[in-house]
């Protein structure tokens, strides 16, 4: 009778070494850094207007903390032992915010204030990963901009490709960061014209 009472506890102890709750985290996480960051302590005044930047929508292959690698038009894998610190569309929205602020001097706000007469930038972050056939980091952003004064919505595709070799946990972060900064800079210049 005593042996059967200890059986569940013994079974739990022996299975404890076999079970894993979640995967092992990578040694480090990836993030984006602005090529031209906003200066600390800089006060901005909305004399040249405001810009509201929405967090871009993303397809399911990008809607993960993993870094996608397209090996063909229909096949996607992910870089081993690599993760973003937070979803890529949020990282990219902040990068665009810094680029628009530093390149245009306009005040960037996260959400439109009631009656705020500024411009609005939204869009789809269609690619944010690695293209294996060309060994390049690819960032593709379909931007939609409504300029000040309720003018018609403008739409434009931006894309940057940066070589990356080999495709591994150490090389993909810097390459995607460079491509993302290039796209953010081009978007900021478009917003500022």
UniProtKB/TrEMBL annotation:
Ranges that cross the membrane: none
Pfam families assigned: ABC_trans_aux
Keyword annotations: Lipoprotein, Signal
ABC-type transport auxiliary lipoprotein component domain mapped to chain residues: 31-188
Signal peptide: 1-20
Highest taxon above the source species: Bacteria
Name of the protein: ABC-type transport auxiliary lipoprotein family protein
